[in-house]
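Example: Sugar ABC transporter substrate-binding protein.
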Amino acid sequence: MGHRVRKHVLPAVLVVAAFTMSACSTNSSGTSTKSPSNAPAADSSAAALQGSIAFNDDKLAELRDKIKAALAGKDLSKVDNAVVVNVVSAYWDAAKTGAEKGASELGVKSTFQEPPTQDVTLQLSMINTLVSQGITGFSVSAIQPSAMGSAVSAATARGVNILPIDGPMQQYQSDAPVYLGTPNYAAGQQAGKAMAQMLPNGGDVALLTGSLTATNATQRIAGFKDAIKDTKIKVFQVYNDNGDAGKALQNASAAMQADPNLKAFYTVWSYDGPSAGQAVQSAGKSGKVQILADDAEPKTLQMLKSGVIQAMVLQQPYQQGYMAEYILTAMKVLGKDATMALLKPYLESDGYTLSSGIGVVTAADLDAYNAKLASFGLASS
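Written out as structure tokens, the predicted fold is:
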């Protein structure tokens, strides 16, 4: 099967002392107070959800500046980074934009690649080819972390630095010592707490996900389930679509048919939210079956505004692409130990995770969130 790969070699620019980045500026958190006037009727408890779009931007901006200072005056001409994600998605467009921005600021080369489907063999082939072509480091959202062993070993043997993004790969921590992305269990917990506010009287919830093996998915689902343990909410079923938005739509429709009393969906992967929204609309249940969606694809934003989706639990793929360029460049130029020393004060309590932040957005927060996206040069995240 052929595949579409977008490959970008970014132009070099000088790193200047006067550098600033508006995309990492502080944004205020929003608070949901009411549903939009054109929204379908829904449980009024959804309007009580409090949104937050601060993410972890301030700390990441501080870390970026420290890395910049450490790199000042160093030769970056041999740096050749790559970003390899897990599937073509609007979610990853934000990471691509971030990687381009970071590489441009540093004046280093970078390549962005994405398989059209969640094909483990194809992703591994992409990585092995990039390593053989002489890249100095790559960030990766692994489709199946357990399958990455040979690729990690081959890359490490050639001195290529590895940075997991989006989903951790702790089994390879000796070779890839830091994970840049969402603390996925915490994100799932936040989603579970939000769902408890949306359904104060409990009810059945169906989960839609693109994988039952990817660490980011399993951790988010685990966090969600743990957060609702002491509530009257029950997980009716977890539906896997294997990265196929069309299958996600079928799963959402099947869930409502199988459980006429279904109260809500929690959608784990970015395209699952719009798929659930489409199914709910087709069934004439907008507002009656609520949706809490991870990530903010364009259709998700539209459905949030119209009231089909009640809230979004958001990651920061832009920061995953942007900060990856700084971290991989530092590992190549300063060395892994010196880079980890810079990162250490910013890591989570596990000593492994560099959080790109978690946000919650409701309809009341949309203006502030859209302003944040615009500061990144994005229409969605």
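The two ends are 28 Å apart (CA to CA).
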